[in-house]
Each structure stands twice: as C-alpha cells, then as structure tokens.
Amino acid sequence: MSGSAGIWRCAARTDTGKVRARNEDAFLALPERGLWLVADGMGGHLNGDLASRLIVERLAELPDFLDLDQQVDWMRSALHLLNRHLATDLTVHNDHPEAIVGSTVVAMLAQGDQACCLWAGDSRCYMWRGGRLFQLTRDHSYMEELISDQGVSPAEAARHPSARALTRAIGAHEKLELDMIRFTVYPGDTLLLCSDGLYQSLLPDTLGAALNLPSPSLALQRLFNQCLAGPARDNISAVVIRR
C-alpha cells in the first residue's frame, strides 16, 4: 500500500469556462492512493476530450502495492503505450485523418514525504512553500523554447504567433518524451496541478495568495472565482493538494 491515506488533503474541479462549447480537460484526485493529475485535451483538435479521459482512466489503474519508483516506471510505460494508441491507432483511423487526438498531462505521485511529478505539455505543477510560489514544471511549448534555447525575452516570446504551440503532448508525436522531477513534501506544503486555462488567467501573486488560504477547498474556490470573474476563454482545471 502507498501509505498515503490520512496524510493528504485535496480539492479538485474543472469548468468549461465562458467561451468553449465543451470541456476537453479531465482530472483525477485519489489522495488515499497518493495520485493526482490534470489532462488538457489539445484545443482545436477533434476528440481532445477523449484523449484526456483515456489518460485519466488508464492512470486510475495504477497498482497501489508498488513502491514509488515502481509506480513511476508503471506510469511511464502506461503513458508511452497510450501515446502510441492515440498517435497511431486513433489518429490514423479518425474520420479526419489530419486531426491529432492528444492531450497534455501533469501527474503527481506521493508516498510518505516523497513525491514525483511527470508531465508532457503545458499543464503545470506549482508548489507553495514558506510564503513563496515555485513552478516545478517547465512548459513544453514553443514559447519556452524561444526563451530557454534562443535567449528571447519572455515578453518578446509571448508575442510570437506560435508561442502557445505545444512541443510535447500525449498523442502528438509517435515518440513521447516525459519530464520528471522528484522532491520531498513537508507538512504545510501546498501543490497545485492545473491546465493553462487557469494560470494564463491569473498572476503568480494571485496563485500564491489563493494557495496560502487555510484549506485546499478554500484555495480552489478562490482560484475558480477569480478565473471565472475574467474572460475565461479556455477550459479551467485544478487540483490543490496539501500535506
């Protein structure tokens, strides 16, 4: 068993927003098993909601008798198999062969005070610790490549017409590359998994102020109230986790 029951408190929610016709996001929150994730179906593509739902359904089957390293290996294997399924089987047999069936994913596994975050795409994991907000993940986007690889300023990169184009996602390419970070979670730490519909709408100070509230449910309510008070052009999903 993971030994996570009773250690974690969490709250999770998704919303279509004010503009999109359907919600292509999906989330999973299983604190008793130390497993959480957010998946964002690729906007503008057919069956983005199918892709995100398949990710949630598959990773919900994660065995709870494995240790953390074994769970990470299982999740990697599951996502690689799912990537092959989405990138070849579903895309090739789609009624619109040019359409990609894909989704971002950011997933967190935890056992005791140890946690791992795996991701592909631009859904993010943040940590609120000691009054400071840390972004643990790095976006797999063209904008991020412009900044990190070509030295373009964030402001200039954001103006590029392809700034938000994804460079990695489940189902986007035949070969999948996942990034991972492993870290220790201390009592009082708060983690946020979210789709870009949330963080694109809110300043980092606003995210931090919400995560500083006394409970995950209050933090989540604040985040969604503030997002939905704005344009909310994209689907919004978030999972708030506290040890």
Structure description:
Pfam families: PP2C_2. This is Protein phosphatase 2C domain-containing protein. This protein has 243 residues and is of the alpha+beta class. It has one domain: PPM-type phosphatase domain (Phosphatase 2c, domain 1, 4-Layer Sandwich). The protein contains 7 helices and 10 strands. The chain has helices at 48-59, 68-92, 142-150, 154-158, 196-199, 204-211, 216-228, and strands at residues 9-15, 25-30, 35-41, 103-111, 114-120, 124-129, 132-135, 179-184, 190-194, 236-242. The chain has a 5-stranded antiparallel beta sheet with strand order 1-10-9-6-7. The chain has a 5-stranded antiparallel beta sheet with strand order 2-3-4-5-8. Helix 1 (48-59) packs antiparallel against helix 2 (68-92). The longest helix is centred in the N-terminal third of the chain and has 25 residues, at 68-92. The radius of gyration is 17 Å and the shape is globular. It starts with 8 loop residues before the first strand and ends with a strand. The mean pLDDT is 90.
